[in-house]
Amino acid sequence: MNEPNLDMIRWKDLSKESIYMRQGSSPTFFESFQLGDGFATCIKNYSPSVVHSGKILMNPNGARAWTRNCVWEDQNIWGRNAQGIPELLKPEYFRYRIVNNIDLQKDYFMPFIHKFRAVINKKTHSAGQYLIFVDRVTNIETATISEAMCERISLENLVWAPHLYDLVPLVTKSFRTWVGVVRDSRFSLPLVFGPKNDINEYSRHLLLVSGCVAKLNSGKGIPTIIGEIGIHFDIDNAGCYSTSDFSRQVSSINITISALDRSLPV
Fold it and tell me: Rounded to 5 degrees, what angle do the CA atoms 130, 132, 133 make?
Protein backbone atom coordinates (compact mmCIF):
# COMPACT_ATOMS: atom_id res chain seq x y z
CA MET A 1 0.00 0.00 0.00
CA ASN A 2 2.21 2.76 -1.34
CA GLU A 3 1.94 6.28 0.12
CA PRO A 4 -1.74 6.21 1.16
CA ASN A 5 -3.42 9.58 1.47
CA LEU A 6 -6.58 10.60 3.34
CA ASP A 7 -7.48 12.87 0.46
CA MET A 8 -10.49 15.10 1.18
CA ILE A 9 -11.58 13.55 4.48
CA ARG A 10 -12.06 16.38 7.00
CA TRP A 11 -10.79 18.98 4.53
CA LYS A 12 -11.90 22.38 5.85
CA ASP A 13 -12.21 24.25 2.55
CA LEU A 14 -12.02 22.67 -0.90
CA SER A 15 -10.83 25.97 -2.35
CA LYS A 16 -7.70 25.97 -0.17
CA GLU A 17 -4.48 24.33 -1.31
CA SER A 18 -2.59 21.69 0.62
CA ILE A 19 0.39 22.68 2.75
CA TYR A 20 2.13 19.39 1.90
CA MET A 21 4.68 18.91 -0.88
CA ARG A 22 3.74 21.67 -3.25
CA GLN A 23 5.53 20.49 -6.34
CA GLY A 24 4.89 21.42 -9.95
CA SER A 25 1.30 22.26 -10.86
CA SER A 26 -0.66 21.99 -7.59
CA PRO A 27 -4.42 22.44 -7.96
CA THR A 28 -6.82 22.75 -5.06
CA PHE A 29 -9.52 20.11 -4.84
CA PHE A 30 -12.03 22.51 -6.37
CA GLU A 31 -9.67 23.25 -9.24
CA SER A 32 -9.26 19.50 -9.72
CA PHE A 33 -13.05 19.17 -10.03
CA GLN A 34 -13.01 21.82 -12.76
CA LEU A 35 -10.11 20.23 -14.62
CA GLY A 36 -11.79 16.84 -14.51
CA ASP A 37 -14.96 18.28 -15.98
CA GLY A 38 -13.19 19.87 -18.93
CA PHE A 39 -12.50 23.42 -17.80
CA ALA A 40 -9.18 25.02 -18.75
CA THR A 41 -7.89 26.34 -15.43
CA CYS A 42 -4.90 28.42 -14.29
CA ILE A 43 -3.13 26.55 -11.50
CA LYS A 44 -0.39 27.61 -9.09
CA ASN A 45 2.98 26.14 -10.00
CA TYR A 46 5.84 25.37 -7.62
CA SER A 47 9.30 24.98 -9.10
CA PRO A 48 11.44 23.99 -7.32
CA SER A 49 9.19 22.36 -4.74
CA VAL A 50 7.39 24.71 -2.32
CA VAL A 51 8.68 27.77 -4.24
CA HIS A 52 5.78 29.54 -5.95
CA SER A 53 6.79 30.28 -9.54
CA GLY A 54 3.56 31.64 -10.99
CA LYS A 55 0.59 29.93 -12.64
CA ILE A 56 0.21 27.63 -15.61
CA LEU A 57 -2.82 26.86 -17.76
CA MET A 58 -3.88 23.25 -17.44
CA ASN A 59 -6.27 21.33 -19.68
CA PRO A 60 -6.32 24.00 -22.42
CA ASN A 61 -8.12 21.62 -24.80
CA GLY A 62 -10.96 20.91 -22.37
CA ALA A 63 -10.54 17.14 -22.02
CA ARG A 64 -13.00 15.49 -19.59
CA ALA A 65 -12.31 12.70 -17.13
CA TRP A 66 -15.96 11.71 -16.92
CA THR A 67 -18.07 9.81 -19.45
CA ARG A 68 -21.19 11.15 -17.72
CA ASN A 69 -21.60 13.87 -15.09
CA CYS A 70 -18.93 14.85 -12.58
CA VAL A 71 -19.82 12.94 -9.39
CA TRP A 72 -18.95 15.97 -7.24
CA GLU A 73 -21.24 18.22 -9.25
CA ASP A 74 -24.02 15.64 -8.88
CA GLN A 75 -23.58 15.99 -5.10
CA ASN A 76 -24.00 19.77 -5.46
CA ILE A 77 -20.54 20.37 -4.04
CA TRP A 78 -19.95 22.68 -6.97
CA GLY A 79 -21.98 23.97 -9.88
CA ARG A 80 -22.11 26.62 -12.58
CA ASN A 81 -23.54 30.11 -12.38
CA ALA A 82 -25.75 31.71 -15.01
CA GLN A 83 -22.69 32.40 -17.14
CA GLY A 84 -21.52 28.79 -16.92
CA ILE A 85 -18.59 29.65 -14.63
CA PRO A 86 -17.77 27.02 -11.95
CA GLU A 87 -18.74 27.94 -8.38
CA LEU A 88 -17.92 26.10 -5.17
CA LEU A 89 -21.18 25.57 -3.28
CA LYS A 90 -20.13 23.41 -0.33
CA PRO A 91 -16.50 24.12 0.58
CA GLU A 92 -16.82 22.16 3.86
CA TYR A 93 -18.64 19.17 2.36
CA PHE A 94 -16.10 16.62 3.57
CA ARG A 95 -15.88 18.12 7.02
CA TYR A 96 -19.42 18.98 8.06
CA ARG A 97 -20.35 15.66 9.69
CA ILE A 98 -16.98 14.88 11.21
CA VAL A 99 -16.96 15.27 15.00
CA ASN A 100 -13.97 16.61 16.88
CA ASN A 101 -12.88 13.35 18.48
CA ILE A 102 -12.44 11.52 15.19
CA ASP A 103 -8.91 10.20 14.66
CA LEU A 104 -8.30 10.12 10.92
CA GLN A 105 -5.79 7.30 11.04
CA LYS A 106 -7.56 5.12 13.62
CA ASP A 107 -11.09 5.62 12.31
CA TYR A 108 -10.43 5.71 8.57
CA PHE A 109 -6.97 4.46 7.64
CA MET A 110 -6.69 1.35 9.83
CA PRO A 111 -10.20 0.04 8.97
CA PHE A 112 -9.26 0.51 5.30
CA ILE A 113 -6.14 -1.62 5.82
CA HIS A 114 -8.32 -4.31 7.41
CA LYS A 115 -10.73 -4.32 4.46
CA PHE A 116 -7.86 -4.19 1.95
CA ARG A 117 -6.27 -7.28 3.48
CA ALA A 118 -9.61 -9.10 3.64
CA VAL A 119 -10.25 -8.53 -0.08
CA ILE A 120 -6.74 -9.72 -1.01
CA ASN A 121 -7.21 -12.87 1.08
CA LYS A 122 -10.65 -13.54 -0.40
CA LYS A 123 -9.61 -13.04 -4.02
CA THR A 124 -6.45 -15.13 -3.70
CA HIS A 125 -7.95 -17.81 -1.44
CA SER A 126 -4.78 -17.58 0.60
CA ALA A 127 -5.49 -16.04 3.98
CA GLY A 128 -2.28 -15.53 5.89
CA GLN A 129 0.05 -16.37 2.99
CA TYR A 130 0.69 -12.82 1.78
CA LEU A 131 2.48 -9.99 3.55
CA ILE A 132 0.76 -6.61 3.39
CA PHE A 133 3.28 -3.76 3.36
CA VAL A 134 1.77 -0.61 4.86
CA ASP A 135 3.22 2.87 4.47
CA ARG A 136 2.24 5.74 6.74
CA VAL A 137 -0.32 8.31 5.70
CA THR A 138 1.56 10.78 3.52
CA ASN A 139 -0.45 13.93 4.21
CA ILE A 140 0.22 13.79 7.95
CA GLU A 141 3.91 14.52 8.56
CA THR A 142 3.84 13.04 12.07
CA ALA A 143 1.95 9.91 11.01
CA THR A 144 2.95 6.71 12.80
CA ILE A 145 1.21 3.54 13.88
CA SER A 146 0.19 2.98 17.49
CA GLU A 147 -1.53 0.54 19.84
CA ALA A 148 -4.64 2.73 19.95
CA MET A 149 -4.88 2.71 16.16
CA CYS A 150 -4.71 -1.08 16.07
CA GLU A 151 -7.37 -1.84 18.68
CA ARG A 152 -9.90 -3.07 16.11
CA ILE A 153 -7.74 -4.97 13.63
CA SER A 154 -5.45 -7.96 13.60
CA LEU A 155 -1.77 -7.31 12.87
CA GLU A 156 -1.33 -10.68 11.20
CA ASN A 157 0.83 -10.49 8.07
CA LEU A 158 1.25 -6.71 8.28
CA VAL A 159 4.67 -5.18 7.60
CA TRP A 160 5.37 -1.58 8.57
CA ALA A 161 7.08 -0.01 5.56
CA PRO A 162 7.35 3.78 5.96
CA HIS A 163 9.22 5.98 3.50
CA LEU A 164 11.78 8.52 4.62
CA TYR A 165 14.01 10.94 2.75
CA ASP A 166 16.44 13.71 3.56
CA LEU A 167 14.06 16.61 2.97
CA VAL A 168 16.43 19.22 1.57
CA PRO A 169 17.63 17.13 -1.43
CA LEU A 170 14.11 15.73 -1.84
CA VAL A 171 12.46 19.12 -2.15
CA THR A 172 15.18 21.14 -3.89
CA LYS A 173 16.82 18.42 -6.03
CA SER A 174 20.09 19.86 -4.85
CA PHE A 175 22.36 18.91 -1.97
CA ARG A 176 23.59 21.24 0.75
CA THR A 177 26.19 19.84 3.14
CA TRP A 178 25.44 22.46 5.76
CA VAL A 179 21.68 22.29 6.34
CA GLY A 180 19.00 19.76 7.26
CA VAL A 181 15.38 19.86 8.42
CA VAL A 182 13.86 18.94 11.79
CA ARG A 183 10.61 17.33 10.67
CA ASP A 184 8.57 17.48 13.87
CA SER A 185 9.89 20.79 15.23
CA ARG A 186 7.59 23.42 16.67
CA PHE A 187 10.14 26.13 16.06
CA SER A 188 9.67 28.70 13.33
CA LEU A 189 13.07 27.79 11.87
CA PRO A 190 13.17 23.96 12.01
CA LEU A 191 16.73 23.56 10.74
CA VAL A 192 19.94 21.85 11.78
CA PHE A 193 23.34 22.93 10.50
CA GLY A 194 26.36 20.86 9.51
CA PRO A 195 26.65 17.27 8.20
CA LYS A 196 27.03 15.75 11.68
CA ASN A 197 23.84 17.37 12.96
CA ASP A 198 22.00 16.48 9.75
CA ILE A 199 22.96 12.81 10.19
CA ASN A 200 21.91 12.89 13.86
CA GLU A 201 18.53 14.41 13.02
CA TYR A 202 17.92 12.03 10.11
CA SER A 203 18.85 9.07 12.31
CA ARG A 204 16.58 10.30 15.10
CA HIS A 205 13.63 10.44 12.74
CA LEU A 206 14.42 7.02 11.27
CA LEU A 207 14.29 5.60 14.80
CA LEU A 208 10.97 7.35 15.44
CA VAL A 209 9.20 6.03 12.35
CA SER A 210 10.66 2.53 12.62
CA GLY A 211 10.48 2.20 16.39
CA CYS A 212 6.84 3.21 16.76
CA VAL A 213 5.73 -0.41 16.18
CA ALA A 214 7.87 -1.90 18.97
CA LYS A 215 4.99 -2.02 21.47
CA LEU A 216 2.49 -3.52 19.07
CA ASN A 217 1.44 -7.16 19.10
CA SER A 218 1.81 -7.50 22.89
CA GLY A 219 5.29 -6.03 22.82
CA LYS A 220 6.54 -8.32 20.06
CA GLY A 221 6.31 -5.61 17.43
CA ILE A 222 5.74 -6.27 13.74
CA PRO A 223 8.26 -6.61 10.89
CA THR A 224 9.61 -3.27 9.70
CA ILE A 225 11.36 -2.21 6.52
CA ILE A 226 12.12 1.29 5.29
CA GLY A 227 10.05 1.10 2.12
CA GLU A 228 11.75 3.95 0.28
CA ILE A 229 14.92 5.89 1.01
CA GLY A 230 17.66 7.44 -1.10
CA ILE A 231 18.42 10.50 -3.23
CA HIS A 232 17.33 11.96 -6.55
CA PHE A 233 19.08 10.56 -9.62
CA ASP A 234 19.03 14.05 -11.16
CA ILE A 235 20.47 16.22 -8.39
CA ASP A 236 21.62 19.59 -9.77
CA ASN A 237 19.89 19.01 -13.11
CA ALA A 238 21.76 15.72 -13.63
CA GLY A 239 24.94 17.57 -14.56
CA CYS A 240 27.06 14.75 -13.15
CA TYR A 241 26.26 12.55 -16.15
CA SER A 242 28.03 15.06 -18.40
CA THR A 243 30.99 15.82 -16.11
CA SER A 244 31.38 12.40 -14.45
CA ASP A 245 31.70 14.30 -11.17
CA PHE A 246 29.46 12.45 -8.72
CA SER A 247 30.92 14.01 -5.58
CA ARG A 248 27.67 15.76 -4.59
CA GLN A 249 25.70 12.55 -5.08
CA VAL A 250 28.25 10.68 -2.96
CA SER A 251 28.04 13.32 -0.22
CA SER A 252 24.26 13.24 -0.28
CA ILE A 253 23.92 9.46 -0.14
CA ASN A 254 26.56 9.40 2.59
CA ILE A 255 24.19 11.40 4.83
CA THR A 256 21.46 8.84 4.20
CA ILE A 257 23.61 5.72 4.65
CA SER A 258 25.29 7.14 7.75
CA ALA A 259 21.89 7.84 9.29
CA LEU A 260 20.73 4.32 8.46
CA ASP A 261 23.86 2.82 10.03
CA ARG A 262 23.36 4.85 13.16
CA SER A 263 19.74 3.72 13.38
CA LEU A 264 20.48 -0.01 13.30
CA PRO A 265 19.76 -1.89 16.55
CA VAL A 266 22.87 -2.68 18.56
Answer: 135
